[in-house]
Amino acid sequence: MLPCLILLSVLGSAVAGPVYPRANASSCACGYRDSAGHVWRESILSDFSGSDALSVVNENWAVETWGQQRQYHYMQYSSANVYNYNNALAIRTQGWSGNGSVYTGEIQTNRDDILYGTFRMYASIPTTPGVCFGFFSYYSDSQESDIEFLTNVTDYSHIVHYTNQPGNTSSNRKNVTVSNTLTSFNEHRFDWLAKETIFYVNGKETTSMTADVPNEASHILANVWSDGNPTWSYGPPAKDAVATVQYINLYFNSTSYNETAFNSNCTEAGKPAVCQV
Ligand SMILES: *[C@@H]1O[C@H](CO)[C@@H](O)[C@H](O)[C@H]1NC(C)=O
Ligand SMILES: *[C@@H]1O[C@H](CO)[C@@H](O)[C@H](O)[C@H]1NC(C)=O
Ligand SMILES: *[C@@H]1O[C@H](CO)[C@@H](O)[C@H](O)[C@H]1NC(C)=O
Ligand SMILES: *[C@@H]1O[C@H](CO)[C@@H](O)[C@H](O)[C@H]1NC(C)=O
Ligand SMILES: *[C@@H]1O[C@H](CO)[C@@H](O)[C@H](O)[C@H]1NC(C)=O
Ligand SMILES: *[C@@H]1O[C@H](CO)[C@@H](O)[C@H](O)[C@H]1NC(C)=O
Ligand SMILES: *[C@@H]1O[C@H](CO)[C@@H](O)[C@H](O)[C@H]1NC(C)=O
Ligand SMILES: *[C@@H]1O[C@H](CO)[C@@H](O)[C@H](O)[C@H]1NC(C)=O
């Protein structure tokens, strides 16, 4: 009786409207709903867990190679510091010889039109003292939300540094001590909303901020760096400092794909269920 009714209702809806391609679970044309109930239109899913993480990087990210004279040292991003490692992606700052440039690693999304979303990185932090490992959005030095790990601070394997730049007050900068061991793999997440940034470890909220929430379309980045500054990164590290990243999943809205275009794509795809993330 019941199966019959379901069949009838499926047939009923099929004849009632235009014939759409059959929707299926792998189509997320109607977007993604996150655990807080927010809907995002687009995604960039980078699974680095195969044997060739670099080819996954190259689909959506640029490996950075810029350099800059800092107060204490010249800091040089190098493609040698983003590489395949342990069936994941390594991002590294190289052990410093004691003289000359500090060689660091960074990836940045090709897209710079990302405006709000939920951003998740599954990673283990470096164990060598003297680097900053960051996962963040960036438009400018005052339009930036950061998750950072500082390997030179006491108890660094349990402290996460959260910031909405300029990060100069107690309401736009927070250090949170977590029970998770950050040198093991954990999912670090920030939800960038119009009026609030909310931060998570393994899906559990750690803190949130309403001060200085960025409002400009941005890139998303991950890096491991040191400039020797004794108020932040410390270092440079004596040995290689390596972060290992298994995935970065970005679900977001952008300035290139508006609500109207999104709704029309969703309809054209036959209105498949919103994907839960
Ligand atoms: C599911 O939908 C997507 C997008 O419409 C399509 O590319 C894919 O081939 C479909 N998969 C199956 C198994 O039908
Ligand atoms: C550091 O390197 C510079 C340039 O390569 C060299 O002139 C200088 O002597 C070096 N200093 C030390 C302490 O090794
Ligand atoms: C941090 O770095 C300084 C110098 O760079 C060093 O003296 C200190 O021992 C380091 N602290 C920790 C906790 O490693
Ligand atoms: C924080 O930095 C911003 C931007 O530079 C500045 O306008 C503000 O006054 C600073 N706040 C404090 C408390 O220093
Ligand atoms: C957070 O940690 C950083 C680095 O150790 C330190 O400079 C800063 O003062 C701390 N902030 C707070 C609010 O404790
Ligand atoms: C939305 O995007 C479509 C396709 O790019 C464009 O034609 C339309 O003008 C945009 N609508 C708004 C309100 O920006
Ligand atoms: C993101 O896009 C969805 C779908 O268009 C919309 O409902 C939501 O309000 C947008 N979120 C933000 C923060 O703009
Ligand atoms: C929207 O649909 C168009 C036409 O099918 C397709 O080319 C485009 O990739 C879709 N946009 C997104 C962001 O899914």
Rg calculated over all Cα atoms: 21 Å
Share in helix? 10-25%
User: Structural class, from secondary structure content?
Assistant: mainly beta
Mean pLDDT over all positions: 92
List the domain count as a whole number.
1
Ligands bound to this protein structure: 2-acetamido-2-deoxy-beta-D-glucopyranose
Enumerate the spans where pLDDT stays under 50 for 5 or more consecutive residues.
Answer: 1-25
Number of strands: 20
Report the CATH architecture.
Sandwich
Q: What's the multimeric state? A: single chain
Classified by CATH, the class is Mainly Beta
Task: Give a structural overview.
The protein is mostly beta strands. The protein has a single domain (44-255), classed as Jelly Rolls (Sandwich). Helix content is 12%, strand content 43%. It has helices at residues 2-16, 53-60, 259-268; strands at residues 32-33, 39-40, 42-47, 61-63, 67-69, 74-77, 82-85, 88-93, 102-109, 114-124, 132-140, 143-150, 159-164, 173-177, 186-192, 197-201, 204-209, 219-225, 241-254, 275-276. Strands 4, 5, 6, 9, 11, 12, 13, 14 and 18 form a nine-stranded mixed β-sheet that branches. The longest helix has 15 residues, at 2-16. It is globular and about 60 Å long. The protein starts with a helix and ends with a strand. The model is unreliable at 1-25 (pLDDT under 50). The structure holds 2-acetamido-2-deoxy-beta-D-glucopyranose (8 copies). This is Glycoside hydrolase family 16 protein.
